[in-house]
Amino acid sequence: MDFRATLLGETRALGDVIRTADPETPVPSCPGWTMNQLLKHVGRGHLWSAQIIAERRHDPLDPRDVRGGKPPGDTDGAVDWLNAGAQAVIDAVDRVGAETRVWTFNGPKPAGWWIRRRVHEATVHRADAVLALGDTYELPAELAGDGISEWITLAAAGADRHHPPLARGTTLHLHATDDGLGPTGEWTITNDEDGLGWSHAHAKGEAAVRGSAVDLFLALTRRRTAADAGLEVFGDEAVWNAWLDATPF
Q1: Contact by Cβ (8 Å): 239, 208
Q2: Cα 170 from chain centroid (whole Å)
Q3: What is the structure's pLDDT at 158?
């Protein structure tokens, strides 16, 4: 997958949705936010990431110190600012080199890691914008599947060791029904003697959740409930609910 092109494309798509909406439209999946705040969050996040990369930082950057972190007051200018932020991430990676290690909230990573992270920040917040307008959210199955993989990885890395999202000895299995995903359309999350981890292996667990990749992505990131997304939940539904409760986006 070309994450660079996808970052630019998903950010443009988000901007196109925002451009058509009243800036004060509430965003129910981000309680207390408006469409304008959603735009600011994603745009400033792009610039925040770009500055971390450009400065080769090994410590966090206060979002208040992001250069150019405030968008213009008009909608068209704000959307242009949003799109420029996505390009800034790519440009920063090109300047320092994709393998240069920089700060991330999951420990030092190659600078190129941020491009994929910002892709899925844009995809999930585009979902917020689309759903706020009552429209149907669409995402290619391959991209939704990668979003699931990325989110499970982040959730596992950031899990509380004393209160993990899966109890010790428990397995949760996710299965995407889309044609063409093959093994990458399955995710088996376990908490065993090695700790919390996951693979694309097919395995039975205490709970399994089945549906399209985009619906799994929306449910996993708590943008829609399993019932609203039309997902099938098998086995102990409490295992799935515990995972969601412990992994907020």
Answers
A1: no
A2: 24
A3: 80
